[in-house]
Specification:
By secondary structure, the chain is α/β, with parallel strands linked by helices. It has helices at 6-9, 20-27, 48-57, 70-80, 93-105, 121-128, 147-153, 176-184, 238-247, 255-265, 268-290, 316-325, 351-365, and strands at residues 35-37, 87-90, 111-114, 132-135, 138-139, 144-145, 158-164, 189-193, 214-219, 232-235, 296-297, 304-308, 328-332, 343-347. Helix 3 runs antiparallel to helix 10 (255-265), helix 4 packs parallel to helix 10 (255-265) and helix 5 runs parallel beside helix 6 (121-128). It binds pyridoxal-5'-phosphate. Its cofactor is pyridoxal 5'-phosphate.
Length: 366
């Protein structure tokens, strides 16, 4: 066997949510009827304009993607309220942008700060490059960032600080003033992950004009309904974006993903409706789940809700298994750093699916 590099040898594999096919096989279910409430996807489906554009362009996939994606950057810039030079687009979602950040910044031994529980992929990507995680604290009881724990974690070796708002999996927001305080306390790159910002109505874009160490991370996987097309983007000072472009794989954004992104941005009605339906589902799920005295349900600003299930007498694995037997996937959060074995995350679905979920939950808990 060839010698694998140490950082890869030591890596805990990333545990993704379970696939429909996997679940259908395990529980003898019809894959088409499985209700997906585990991966924070968009229950509305993609924009019809995006589907049409893909269908009309399928015959073009024998040629390489365009390396010039200026019109997509222009559209993202006007959607986000920034300029195209400040944008980098990734073809494996926001996850690719994270990987390019690590490649651009990390020398082995550099530190980065995360606030568990948060998005686990930061650690997965950065550790491969020899970066060392330093843990700040998310105050789960109050569902907010413990600002001091971040300030205390900063050292001369800190290269990157991750702030996830709304935070995945807890759904809490980070106060803008806290973000300012952190930006002013360090020269490290402060990555503000706004994958879910549309569901909260709050973003931090205006801080870009003041801080050149702010990096905003976004995705087309959530409100834009394109998780399967793998498109993400970052917004930062243009000089830093230039360095990232040296590293990013040139053709990672494939033709069909590019088209899907452009046409979805041309469909503001879809974006608005998709935001509103997810908020409606989130509010319904929050209200209905809060009626179960056995569950502790956390208020969320995103398209998912974190639930503490210890009052049910079951752990997250047991309760997720019971839901799965009924064809419903939720996220068992026991592999998330900062949470124990009693948490599940429930993503928004269609209203009919939400009702089905609540009924199944009733039958499990009674
Ligand atoms: C907080 C957060 N950031 C980034 C991502 C990555 O998104 P993408 O699908 O664009 O890779 C996710 C995906 O779930 C996420 O939850």
């Amino acid at each position: 066997m060839v010698k694998i590099k140490n950082t890869v040898n030591e890596l805990d594999p990333y545990v993704p949510g379970r696939s429909n096919a996997d679940l259908a096989r395990a529980y003898g279910l019809d894959p088409a009827k499985i209700i997906r409430m585990g991966s924070n996807e968009n229950p509305m489906g993609p924009s019809p304009m995006a589907i049409k554009a893909l269908e009309e362009n399928l015959h073009t996939i024998n040629t390489y993607p365009e390396s010039n994606i200026d019109d997509l950057k222009d559209k993202i810039a006007s959607y986000a309220g920034t300029s195209p030079e400040q944008i980098i687009v990734g073809g494996d979602g926001a996850d690719e942008i994270l990987d390019v950040l690590a490649k651009t910044l990390i020398e082995p031994g550099d530190e980065y700060i995360v606030h568990p529980p948060s998005y686990m992929y930061y650690e997965f990507t950065f550790n491969i490059h020899g970066a060392v995680p330093v843990y700040a604290r998310w105050d789960i009881e109050n569902n907010q960032l413990d600002l001091n724990s971040v300030l205390e974690a900063i050292s001369p070796r800190t290269k990157v600080i991750f702030l996830c708002t709304p935070n995945n999996p807890s759904g809490g927001l980070i106060d803008k003033q806290d973000i300012r305080t952190i930006l002013e306390s360090t020269d490290a790159l402060v990555v503000v992950d706004e994958a879910y910002w549309e569901f909260s109505g709050v973003n931090n874009l205006e801080l870009l004009a003041e801080y050149d160490n702010l990096f905003i991370l976004r995705t087309f996987s959530k409100v834009m309904g394109l998780a399967g097309m793998r498109i993400g983007y970052g917004i930062c000072h243009q000089d830093f974006i230039q360095y990232m472009h040296r590293v990013k794989p040139v053709f990672s954004l494939i033709k069909l993903s590019y088209l899907a992104a452009v046409t979805t941005l041309d469909d503001p009605d879809y974006i608005e409706k998709s935001t509103q339906l997810s908020i409606q589902s989130r509010d319904y799920l929050y209200r209905e789940m809060s009626k179960f005295p056995e569950l502790k349900v956390y208020q969320s600003w995103a398209n998912y809700i974190l639930v503490d299930v210890r009052g049910t007498g079951m752990n997250s694995k047991e309760i997720s298994e019971k839901l799965m037997k009924n064809g419903i996937i939720v996220r068992d959060c026991s592999s998330f750093r900062g949470l124990d074995e009693f948490w599940i995350r429930v993503s928004v679905a269609t209203m009919e699916e939400d009702e089905q979920f609540i009924n199944v939950l009733k039958s499990i808990l009674q």
